[in-house]
Amino acid sequence: MANPNLSAELTQANIDTIKSNLQHIKDLLLFLVNLTPQERKRLFKMGPKSLSFVEYALTVATEHTGIMPANFSLEEFKKDYDLTRALSEISVVSGPLLEGISDTQMLAGAEAMNAANIVYAQVKVAAKTDSSLDGVRTELKRRYENQGKKIPPTP
């Protein structure tokens, strides 16, 4: 792990700017769709090999319009192809960004949980001699309730 001890901050102004910029991007991409897992499963997947196939098929369809069925829209085919290429360009840039956000969130969360567990351990020890910490200990303990206990299946 490159950053075992992450130490970074985002100001509210930075967060607001990022959210505003992301909203602007979403506004430019109003046509985006969200597919269900079942819909994803049913669709053809277009990888690098498929890209050259589709590109060549577009060339063939453009050069031989007379062999295409009457209900085939060469214009829509080209739009789909162009959109796929454009979104691929955006994915190349945004993919690593999203992965970095996700990984950094995971690391920061893990570090925060480690710190919280240290606090909890100290509260448990201190509560043995200071009854004023009983409520705090009970509240912190809720995070770990029912962990490791198997709940019997209902008949």
Tell me about the biggest sheet? Answer: none
Structural class: mainly alpha
Order of helices and strands: HHHHH
Average the pLDDT over all residues and give the rounded result.
92
Strand residue content: under 5%
Tally of separate helices:
5
- Cα-atom Rg, whole angstroms? 27 Å
Helix content: 55-70%
How is this structure best described in words?
By secondary structure, the protein is mostly helical. The protein has a domain at about 45-145. It is about 65% helix and about 0% strand. It is built from 5 helices and no strands. It has helices at about 10-30, 35-40, 50-65, 75-125, 135-140. The protein is elongated.
Concise summary:
This protein is mostly helical and 155 residues long. It has helices at residues 12-28, 37-42, 48-63, 74-127, 134-141.
Keywords:
single chain, mainly alpha, 5 helices
Question: Which secondary structure elements does this structure contain, and how are they paired or packed?
Answer:
Blueprint lengths: L11 H17 L8 H6 L5 H16 L10 H54 L6 H8 L14
Helix pairs in contact: 3-4, 4-5
